[in-house]
Amino acid sequence: MKHTHDIASTPVTADVFTHGTTPKGRVARAFRLSLTDGSSVTISEYGCSMLSLQMPDESGEIGETILGFPWLPGYLRDTNYLGALIGRYANRIAHGRFSLDGETYVLSNNEGGHHLHGGRRGFSHHLWQGEIIELDGCPALQFERVSPDGEEGYPGELSCRVVFSLSPDHEVDVTISCETSAPTVVNLTLHPYFNLDEPGTSAMDHRVRIHASEFLPVDNGMIPIGERLPVAETPFDFRTLRTLGERIGEDHPQLAIGKGYDHTFPLEDADGTLREAAVVQAARSGRWLRIFTTAPGIQLYSGNHLGESVNGHDIVHPYRSGLCLEPQAWPDSPNQPDFPDTTLRPGEEYVHRIRYSFGTGELD
Fold first, then answer.
1. Taking the CB of residue 292, how many other CB atoms lie within 10 A of it?
2. Which of 2, 102, 151, 245 gives 20 to 30 Å between its CA and that of 337?
3. Phi, psi at 124, each rounded to 5°
4. 326 is a catalytic site residue
5. 3-state secondary structure of 74
């Protein structure tokens, strides 16, 4: 049943509906924020996953800008983390282990002997508790989950909250916050696959700009080798708007390892304040997207493993039909002393802000 929750005299409305039922019989609800022009963002309690992000194109037509599934079973079986909230640690931790304060912690490994996106059952495959709240006089969405001490091998009970808001300027603001009962490491992000033209079409003709002059090279296990290489004169140079597919097929060892782009870019002027990290522009729809973050890095992923059905079901997102730009800390930071620290201690608060700002027309 659909329930509408309106706060009087605001341009934003919110509603909630049933998304589906988990194998254990628990109901997952979905929450939607909408503008009067039809723009909207929809989030599920399952995985705190972004199901839909509909925005106007240059003609004013509202359309989908991210990849997703029409029903919950697609997310239950998904191995690509479509739209999901990633945690406790986004990206990879080498060999699924790290040391903190003299203690070594062993995590679950789920990718070639390494720990990826929170392990075998990370935050993306848990049920969160959602509700409609009021934020600055408008409805917003809040999702909460407590990760118990020892989950996937991580120390400390981690209390997490994610708040989504939608502005009349077609901006989706996300604030992720956490507190811990014991020293631990934290690195949370969202994992939407963007296609600003039309889901199902190639995203390789999207133009991308990333505010980074370096990238992190990786070994054959996709673990950073500890170096920062300049992007100049390489296929990783996105300092100016450039088509994503322009150089993705070049003979470069890092492209061969990642089967395309799957690399972190240390952001320039990363001081913990909200600032623009990347821009995406689509030629056919005229849409553009600016991504802002407080994190020190952003991961570019070119959808290299899309194109397979969801465990035998007939839902297929074609190869490279979506691109990810995931604001986050750097991969394997707990094992790399020269990387930005990701330690969270009792009494401290982890806060990561992300803004997705949509528009059309010329970009500066």
1. 18
2. 151
3. -70, -15
4. yes
5. helix
